[in-house]
Amino acid sequence: MTPGKSAEAARPARRRLSVDRRREELMAAALELFSKHDAEDVSIDDVASAAGASRALVYHYFGGKQELYVAALKSAAEQLESRLRPDQGGRPLDDLAAGLGRYFDFVEEHAAGFAALLRGGPANRAGEIGEIVDGVRQRLFRLIQKQMRVEHPSPVLRTTLRSWIASVETAGLDWLEHRDIERPVLEKMLVDHMIALLGVAAEYDGDVRSLFEGLAAEQFGG
Amino acid sequence: MTPGKSAEAARPARRRLSVDRRREELMAAALELFSKHDAEDVSIDDVASAAGASRALVYHYFGGKQELYVAALKSAAEQLESRLRPDQGGRPLDDLAAGLGRYFDFVEEHAAGFAALLRGGPANRAGEIGEIVDGVRQRLFRLIQKQMRVEHPSPVLRTTLRSWIASVETAGLDWLEHRDIERPVLEKMLVDHMIALLGVAAEYDGDVRSLFEGLAAEQFGG
How far apart are CA A97 and CA A79, in angstroms? Predict the structure, then answer.
């Protein structure tokens, strides 16, 4: 193979790479803006200028602002979800701690994506954006449910797990804002929160009581 | 005074009343829509038709969609905040329970307003909407801080209180969605959550330990 031929063969791959990279740069710039402002206050021009690109290029890649917003949130959600794969068969609270560590890896490495997702808010949302944001939360809920080996959560357990997820989200935002607690300390405290909340829920609900006793036996020896 | 004169004198007041009422009806219809859809997916026509009014009337009262959105959220926030006045000098956990009861009165009586506010999301928000939504949360934070007689919350206490507020918001939404836990039971459980979370925080932070011991002494006798 001559050097010339090799360069020619490599060109489409390089070009593909640079298209993907350009697209990612635009989405990163968009997430940065969407993490700080309401979607309606961000224009295509803002995104283009933040990414050092032309308005036409943004339209070329995404078609319009709504599509760019959806693509950017989707990419953040996928990156978070890819870290939330179930662990294989550890003790439930150890799996929870490991999962929380990966959640905070995302918070730290993709601060803008995390904040942009959470601008969605806890209220149920219709439409494409709502599906993306609720999707992450539901995946997290099901993952924890699986870690705890619960098939049909009772109302008290459902409320408790949803409340804990909300408190983790808020702790993540608070940490990004202040960074005045060491991450490992905060993560340990949030696992302790879960244990404490399940302890409270156990006083209100027989199903949670059995779950709580099972978790304690498995974790600390029966 | 003749009956005729009295009727004439009453007319401006009646008219005023009916203007206010019409405005409130439009805002109620708007909150209902904003509680279920993103602001960008709600049109002035949707609001007008939901309220049985003309598009022109909505413009007449509010000027435009953004103004209507801001006015509707502001009115929901004011109604919630008016219930969150500090109690005078009860024991902190009793005051917390009383405040939580009034919070859930709002959740129950103004479900649409509550959901519309929470679509705002936990992420810090720029702009007028962000100020309204963050304003409610900050007022709640300061109220709890006052109830607990804390002037400068430590990072651990700040995270704990913010997490608890987020979990209360989510529990409120979950309750509206399912209503399968009795409200008084849920409220009691959320107060128990706070006690449990402060108990965890006390293990991480000397300031919270003193606070926790003080609360316990005051509540249950030292």
Answer: 19
Which two tokens mark A135? 């999707």
Q: Would you state the pLDDT for residue A134?
A: 85
Compute the distance between CA of residue B168 and CA of residue B39 in angstroms, rounded to an integer. Answer: 24
Structure-token pair, residue B121 = 């999301």
Instruction: Tell me how far apart the alpha carbons of residues A132 and A94 are, in angstroms, rounded to a whole number.
Output: 28
Amino acid at B103: Y
Q: Output the DSSP codes for A38-73.
A: -GGG--HHHHHHHTT--HHHHHHHHSSHHHHHHHHH
DSSP summary character for residue A181: S
Q: Do B175 and A164 touch (CB under 8 A)?
A: no
CA angle (B156, B161, B162) in 5-degree steps? 100
pTM of the model: 0.87
* B129 → closest Cβ in A38, A129, A185: A38
| Candidates B124, B154, B182, B208, partner chain A, best to mutate (most A CBs within 10 A) | B124
With a cut of 90, say whether residue A2 has pLDDT above it.
no
Mean pLDDT by 10 residues, chain B (222 residues): 48 67 92 86 93 94 91 93 81 92 95 88 72 89 93 97 95 95 98 97 96 90 63
Residue B52, exposed/middle/buried by CB under 10 A (0-12, 13-18, 19+)? Answer: exposed
% of chain A residues with pLDDT over 90 = 68
ipTM: 0.86
Q: Which residues of B touch A118 (CB under 8 A)?
A: 121-123
Q: Do B204 and A197 touch (CB under 8 A)?
A: no
* B107 φ/ψ angles, rounded to the nearest 5 degrees: -55, -45
Nearest to B196 among A41, A129, A200 (CB): A200
Residues A17 and A76: their CA atoms lie apart, in Å, by 20
Q: Is the pLDDT of residue A93 over 50?
A: yes
